[in-house]
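Review form for a predicted model. The reviewer records the input and the model, then writes brief findings.
Reviewer: anonymous (R2)
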Amino acid sequence: MQYSINKLQKYFKHEHENGYSNKAVIGGLAKILDFWESEARNEGVPEDVIALVSNRLRDYHRLSPQSRAETLKGLWKRVQGNEGPLVEEGEISGGSALKATEEKAESRPATQVMVEADRKPEREPQRPVENREMPIKKTKAPRSSSYPGAINSQTPAAFGAKLDVLHGVGPKHANKLEKLGLFTLGDMLYNFPRRYDDYSNLRPIRNLKAGDVGTVIGQIQGVYERKARSGKLTIIEAVISDDGFSAIRITWFNQPWLMNRLANGMNIAVAGTIEQYLGRLVINNPDWEPVEIENLHTNRIVPIYPLTESISQKMLRELMDQVVKFWTPRVVDPLPKPLISEAGLLSLGEALFQIHFPDDQEFLKAARDRLAFDEIFYLQLGVSKRRKDWTKQAARKFEVGDDWLVKASERLPFKLTNAQNKVVAEIRTNLAAGVPMNRLIQGDVGSGKTAVALLAALMVIEDGSQIAFMAPTSILAEQHYNTFRSLLIDEGNFEESQIKLLTGDTNSFERGVISEDLKSGTLKILIGTHALIEDPVIFNDLQLIIIDEQHRFGVQQRATLRQKGSNPHLLVMTATPIPRSLALTMYGDLDLSIMDEMPTGREPVKTFVLRPVERERAYTLIRSQVKVGYQVFVVYPLIEESEKLESVKAAVDEHKTLSEDVFKDLKVGLLHGKMKPAEKDQVMAEFRDKKFDILVSTTVIEVGVDVPNATVILIEGANRFGLAQLHQLRGRVGRGGGESYCLLIPDQENAAENERLQAMVDTFDGFKLAELDMKLRGPGEFLGTRQSGFAATLRMASLSDVELIEKASHFAKRIVDQDPELASPENKLISEAVTNFWNERGDVS
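Model under review:
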């Protein structure tokens, strides 16, 4: 069934359920014609059917309930193609239904009488929205970039008109609206509500009770003005009744002008929350409007927009109403009609209308789904295009034989897992393909990603080329450097000059040596932090870039490093399990390798949730572990940006308590993010060298710190962390074999039963935890601060909506497979929308 016909059926069904009271649509059933006519034409509904529906519905409000029932029944038969004419030929003229003759009225049941004999005189039928006139001054104002997905070569130029073309908006109000980011009519269309108040629940006053939210319609029985006892507050009170017996008191504060607008006998609609005061029901400071006009602020799902000084909700809503009603039918949809139909989406114009002034909750959801689909769809098309562009480039081939790979693997002090062997094979294929490798290794803490990266590096070095290995912190960079040294130099296969470490703390002399050795090609592997991307770091022949915990680097940083080589191969790694929906969306241009197998001997960390009053149990375990020679982490949370300093002080204070009171016989170190890099490195090195029994820390230890002798991690305020972060922290212990423990203590007694914390006890599977974290906390946990900002620009889409993401990905892939360049005429508008979307957001991976 065509979407427009399906929608018609839904409206008719609602009208039947409402007893043919003409309340299925706010303002009357004829209101659907504003959108339905153009939508039906776009779907190829026959013009005679469209004309019949339009003519009948424009006169629908004049009919009796019985006649309305017959009208809709006949219309539905005609729309479905069944021959069941509503009236005989000739009874429709000029778009108005004529009176039925007395003979027909006598010969047919009362429910089939077409028109009341005493109906009101005919008024001129309402013109469809396409014919309404809205004066717009000609302007050359640039189009806004706040709605990039909607801009295309067929977008009406008036979308770029300044807001002073609207009735009621002068220069002063236009300046106020600019503070909300509203400069043009196009901005208004994409100024989505921040929430909605559902006042569509219309109930008789006698059935109301305190706490209800909805709309009341009644006649004013009295209006009064009085001053509060302080004399500084004006109170306007009105009493309204809907049956002459039941009444409710309405109160407005500091709105004295209402005395000139409200009058006895006036019928008004009032929307708000029902409260109780001195045993009587009241509504305080509600929205209201006369019932003679179309309901905009009451008796419907009401949009609530962000506001600024001197712009009221009511004023902005009325301006939005002007723009949305007139311009949404004129929005040109970039998506082809077959795609819209197959994907089960609203048209773009209808979605924009419904997102502002939804007919009901179903239409609101459908509008959100369409706008969210667009965002993911354009994102996916951009990612797919970038992937194809990447594979068009040429890269040097690096081929190694089976014998070479066996010997290289045997150099390692452990046997590779099946998962490691699988990823090594994938990398080997990529390096031999002649196009740049672009692979993401996603492996849980301790799954052996570094060993795989080492083998990838050896494949490239075999040909004499160079490797850059970038890590997010000095501590982690030094750790990788020591690992590579132990596996290469100590085995006698490498010389000291062939592998170096470069961080912000590297002295100027050593930097000079590194620079010269890089240029000459003597230096084969350079491991470091963001210092790798700074000048004068110039490679002789950079052919492979390895990035650890890649989401902690900005896009520009990775791009800068790429530019230091000629189409180098790229291998990125993360120990953060990434939910499938996020991987599809954000990393769709990368080949994904998953390492879900632990090396032999690595046991799961035993995890327990303790109540705050059970903290002494944790201290007892810590003492017992230190007594037999093991070490312990105690971690405190960094909660929010504004609280970082406060949280650091908490860690410092607790370090003092633990070192001077609780564990005064033990050596307790302190590590936090406010320390200078050299200080942090020194503390970590001392802990690793067993100069401390306990390290009190913030989350600075989250990534990559390897202390095999640590067997216990106590995480205070555990309810403040995301599951991904807790899992990362848990991975800091148990790296030396044997039993290890993770103790989680929330900062509130009732948080001990928290679902998230219990999940840490129930599973050591990082991917299951990631999926749960995605549902509970959103994508920011996995993207890092730089890329979570991109997620924030997805105004309607949720990266946890797997079903929608998979749908958008399916259609995006199909289009790219059929038309990789989006060059066909039917994809022209899509291509423009993708370009605008990505120009607004930039690179993301």
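Findings: The mean pLDDT is 79.
Further findings: Residues 414-419+448-574 form a domain with the Rossmann fold fold (CATH 3.40.50.300).
Recommendation: see findings above.
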